[in-house]
Amino acid sequence: xxxxxxxxxxxxxxxxxxxxxxxxxxxxxxxxxxxxxxxxxxxxxxxxxxxxxxxxxxxxxxxxxxxxxxxxxxxxxxxxxxxxxxxxxxxxxxxxxxxxxxxxxxxxxxxxxxxxxxxxxxxxxxxxxxxxxxxxxxxxxxxxxxxxxxxxxxxxxxxxxxxxxxxxxxxxxxxxxxxxxxxxxxxxxxxxxxxxxxxxxxxxxxxxxxxxxxxxxxxxxxxxxxxxxxxxxxxxxxxxxxxxxxxxxxxxxxxxxxxxxxxxxxxxxxxxxxxxxxxxxxxxxxxxxxxxxxxxxxxxxxxxxxxx
Length: 308
Fold this sequence. Notes:
The chain has ten helices and 13 strands. It has helices spanning about 15-25, 40-45, 60-65, 75-85, 100-115, 125-130, 160-175, 260, 265-275, 285-305, and strands at about 5-10, 30-35, 55, 65-70, 90-95, 120, 140-150, 180-190, 195-205, 210-215, 220-230, 230-235, 240-245. Strand 4 (about 65-70), helix 4 (about 75-85) and strand 5 (about 90-95) form a beta-alpha-beta unit. Helix 4 (about 75-85) runs parallel beside helix 5, helix 5 runs antiparallel to helix 10 (about 285-305) and helix 7 packs across helix 10.
């Protein structure tokens, strides 16, 4: 039997904690190390109960692991990702892959040079796969998404576009083979110093239109999507995991009860580890796909700026 992969996590915040526990509990992996140069005490409190060690020097951390999850604040994703890749470690990067296309390109180029796997944490893909949406043999005509969250101190280093909307941008790109050609938007800056509310309309080259409404300033969470196809519509509530389907194409009514959807992060991490071992041809979301979502997210941000 192969030795378990030694998992390492960069970042000891909330998301870092989730990833550390997945490595500790996944078959074929262990949690070996947590690195957080800004919060060494938090890194130790996370790592030690799970059988790992805390590090405050990147070089020593990278020597103690086989695979790395980058779960630091988004603005530091590229730094951690490039350091891990340079050390020959496959990486799982929480979304967004980076905060600039130049950094995303550097990450992808280094991974290709080193022949290393990169996965990115767009976990809603797991839900769509379990529902059967990727099997509908039609291109969508329209998509409308709403993703509202309550105020939080997390992820304030990026806008609501890179924090929340990017999930739905990725889903739109994964559902349609068309390419985005025009973006319009409007937004509002509240407390973070960046865009905290944003609405965007994206036109694609085949006539597909996608409308995105995201906010991190609401009283309650709301996460819905409406998809219009030539044969009917699909309406999804991501909070309650309910959906309505009038397309005539079968979707799985029990998708929310599947193991994959009950723990989408575990499913996503397992897909990454399988790709690293050569048991799967690719992770659930590749770096190239994550870069496409980033490209569109940055185009939305530019549209917000242009609209004033």
